[in-house]
Amino acid sequence: MTVTSGRSALAVTAVRKAYGDHVVLDGIDLDIPTGSVFALLGPNGAGKTTLVQILSTLIRADAGEMRVAGHDVVREPDAVRAAIGVTGQFSAVDNFLTGEENLLLMADLLRLPRPQRRRRVAELLRRFDLVGAARNPAATYSGGMRRRLDLAMTLVGRPRVIFLDEPTTGLDPRSRRTMWEIIRELVANDGVTIFLTTQYLEEADQLANRIAVLHRGRLVAQGTAAELKRQVGGGHITLRFADARGYHHAARTLDVVSRDDEARTLRIASQGDVRSVRELLDRLDRAQLTVDELQVRAPDLDDVFFALTGNPVTEQEQAR
Amino acid sequence: MTTASSRISTAFADSATMLRRQLRHVVRYPTLILTAAGVPVIFLLLFVYVLGGALGLGLGGPLAGRAAYVNYVVPGIILMTVATAAQGTAISVALDMTEGIVARFRTMAIARISVLTGHVLGSLIQTMFSITVVTGVALLVGFEPTADLGDWLAVAGVLVLITFAVTWLCVALAMLAKTVATASNLPMPLMVLPMIGSGLVPTDSMPTWLRWFADYQPFTPFIETLRGLLTGGTPTGDSAVLAIGWCAVIALGSYLWARKLYNRERPTARN
Known about the structure:
Chain A is of the alpha/beta class. Chain A has helices at 48-55, 77-83, 99-109, 114-127, 143-155, 173-190, 201-207, 225-232, 244-253, 274-286, 301-309; strands spanning 8-19, 22-33, 37-41, 63-68, 71-72, 84-87, 161-165, 193-198, 210-215, 218-223, 236-241, 256-260, 265-269, 291-297. Chain A has two domains: 8-230, Rossmann fold (3-Layer(aba) Sandwich), CATH 3.40.50.300; 233-309, Alpha-Beta Plaits. Chain A contains eleven helices and 14 strands. Chain A is globular, with a radius of gyration of 22 Å. Chain A starts with 7 loop residues before the first strand and ends in an 11-residue tail after the last helix. By secondary structure, chain B is mostly helical. Chain B has one domain. Helices cover 77% and strands 0% of the residues of chain B. Chain B contains eleven helices and no strands.
């Protein structure tokens, strides 16, 4: 047993993975303390899922040292598998089985002591608000219910390290908040370590002790949410222009993060406070540009990438 | 060694769990098993009532005709039942591989192969059920087996072996297929092989080149062994040895192949 208080739940150095010429992960170093929540932030295609798949023994890295829950990922995959739980971005439930049968399937495969199996399943159904739907096939579940069942299945064996690969992608805002509550409780009550991947800065901010930003296979920043936000700034302002002339003039002269030519909309880096908004408006007035719409927004993934790399996430699939 | 024996007991326990999963699927969605029994029954009726009169005359001998043809064709139809069921297995394995639950199984400390053995064992039970239905219908339409209890037990044993082998082959084909549609098409030759053998007509009625193939492909000894046991139509000795040999080779080869394909890495399309 490795009850690792004060030790790393997950430690990796120089992890590399390439598919042919395409380098997916290019030297990843991470050290995640036991009992913390770590968020890996990045757009689609950044390599987040690949890293989760490597650390959860699904695929092999080309190089690198990796220890999860005290075990070497390459040399002791079964010991790692016994210590982890994985909830991927694609639903990992058996649609033909009921919620209860899905959980019992996990209990059987994990060989929990027989008398404990039903008890553990009942407990998880209650905790994840699935008692009413326990006898219905998972195929009939809503997105939020399915995600809760998925996570409940991951928890049957009381894993010490849990990988959550984009746990709220595709969920409505209410289900997302429910998921967040569940994840917070997991850390508070069960003392597990969570490795979370997400495209949402807000989600990482809400949940994680530490955040790392993954960009084209490299970690371009690491730190607490506060440290990261200090680098990123206060957010951005979007401006929609009445005419093409104004739009193009502004696009040349302002600090543009990203642009949408068809909608004649520019995203401008800004702290979002009154003074900087006034400055911006003054500049627009001086240039006699007509703005149809102005919105001040909290920072999101695009702002993070603009701040850290000087590029918005244009060449990759845009985060929502 | 304790580790080896605990590994084996783990593999058995996990396979039993996966078998329960498969049986639950069947009970909840019985369409596949009904198809697997229904299609061969239709073929049986078709061959007996539409073609049996004419084909039965070709068998020659004093008792030629539809009645003789029923007895002749039943072993072939039973093997078509095995092939149909195995095709169903290929579809359900391929479907399963598209489900996230299999990725979950791969991240768990369980016997990896158990997902597939669960499929194979579940399919074995379903196929035996289908064969029972088909044989029952055959008896109703005039099939008159001469087998005694020992013969019937041997028939059951041979059918378990054949089904086991053909099912593992279809599991491997399903793992090879990238889509469910391909997985459904790849086992098609297995449906046709009983026909290009001694399933529907004696091979000596075929042109020489085809006859050569028909005599040496595995389904012919399968069929001849069953025919010998059920109706005493042919001696079983050589064909039984051949049949068991074919089963062993196909089962072992397909098992290793399927295991290799299952253990290969499958990066997700998204990343």
